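Complex 286.
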Amino acid sequence: MTLIATEITKYVYTFGSIRYDLAARSYVMGILNVTPDSFSDGGVYAKPEHAIERALAMADEGADFVDVGGESTRPGSMPVPPEMELERVIPVIRGIVRERSVPVSIDTTKSVVADEALKAGATMVNDISGLTLDPGMMETVARHRSSVIIMHMKGTPKTMQADPSYRDVVGEVRSFLKRQAEAAVKAGISQVIVDPGIGFGKTLDHNLALLRNLGQLRTLGYPVLVGPSRKSFIGAVLDLPVDQRLEGTAAAVAACVLRGASIVRVHDVKEMKRVARMADALRTAP
Ligand code: HH2
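Predicted structure with 6-hydroxymethylpterin-diphosphate bound:
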């Protein structure tokens, strides 16, 4: 009996006043890059008022989360100082939580940024380094009783696409996520989400292998998030530039949902919400 109860409640996570059963359906996370240089929307939402407006629009389009980032992590990008990241994200987070109850995550690898963002109303930390870059991050997330997304990345954004190689990409990514998730739980973090890190130190074949074998990440026992939106693996398959990757993103989102992803991180919320709902219906059909 206990086992069944545990299984049922295991993926029920709370984000402030919002409670989601991450096993019941798929959830859409809208991307908000408050940066001048992100790979697909750099500069568009650099002003706080434009960023807040976009976040509210995404919430109205059905975003289940809004992920706010103040540092681009596109291949080749350089880190920005924490003061600059804070200046970009804090007014935006405050503006969103004032207007909507949609859970906000902070996309950062820095514990000072995470700390301030959580104080400003964010309820989840999205760490693309999987809690490895900043030694203070684990304690910060635990202290705030925040949720965390642990993402796999090989190397750093500056160097990660310089000939990445693996003996067994799915096995290595899985082992990393398992190790970091277990460390997070041990540090007192109870709501952990894992992410294979599409495009972060991976070739086209690595990305496709991870997406094809998402089920192996599911067996870790944590909800899985995937971020395929507009990424270069879609450009490589379809030979299309970043502004023409909507259909490729839709195919990837559908595949992720069918293979058990709980959350998809996307730019095109309205469209991908429809894709995710359709894929949910296909996944759960009797
Ligand atoms: N991808 C990007 C940034 N953050 N976080 C998670 N958890 N998973 C991802 O796949 C992921 C992420 C890169 O995409 P984007 O935010 O659109 O671009 P940029 O890093 O240039 O701002």
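The radius of gyration is 17 Å.
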